[in-house]
């Protein structure tokens, strides 16, 4: 470091000041938010079986409905029910569910008899009204494999919190699209979990989230949210006030979805997350913006200082190395615990690319919304 590094005018302190401020912000987000994920405790087995309800909203799923229901109806757990709502299927989905219901009394089902604009939300509403248990979890019919201990582990992890967040991602497949979608969903889970543990709820996925059923009815369900086509229960979760969130990272409760990635799927995932963020309170939106801004400013100021003050490269590089090491440690630990080792490096890189993507897509959403408003 040059001896006159601190001998500057006020204007000459702008770039170093931005760099130092961004470094402090990055440390704050990593240590206060994300490092909490590294200390998640394993569940301890409990004797009492709390009543649980597993809900599925399905449409035209005759090819795989039996597969998922057989897994759910043979759980190593006694006190639960399965509720299926058929969203106006045009195939034999409801008939297959009816046949299984004759064999398994814990299976209940109903259906929507006509096509509606908001049928997905209506199906969720019907499922919650039909659920008899206090604790409810929604799953999707494209889940590839559900552990027989899924509900048992969930029961062991239920505490005084109102939400129990479990990991969900799509099954690893071939192609760049599949990889990108998995990385986006993994990093979105990290964000939801880290922010949720400090009371800053931002759910981007409503599948495999165990929650108190009464939370939904206390907020009058989807009232005022019916036109939000991009999300469902996530909107209700995020508006539930100061409710505690627990996070369970257990192989038995992780869900892998079997789905094909099409062009545009990755962009839709990013846009969904951004649209959900727009529905958050001003304080929460500012915190998310600040996290993105800190990464942008850190690297921007770092590059500027390296170019303008190459003699101070060591002093400038040390803070960046510290941040990279901490971020690398978090991503490596979580990809290992979530069995996502193949997306470790790309997830690490994506954490620093994501702010640019967020601002790019946020601009596109803003322009599109403005056009639609005047059309």
From TrEMBL:
Glycosyltransferase 2-like domain location: 53-167
Key words, A-Z: Membrane, Transferase, Transmembrane, Transmembrane helix
One GO MF term: transferase activity
TM spans (from-to): 13-35, 286-307, 313-331, 343-362
Hydrolase is among the record's keywords: no
Keyword hit for NAD: no
SUPFAM superfamilies per record: Nucleotide-diphospho-sugar transferases
Name assigned to this protein: Glycosyltransferase, catalytic subunit of cellulose synthase and poly-beta-1,6-N-acetylglucosamine synthase
Organism in which the protein naturally occurs: Sunxiuqinia elliptica
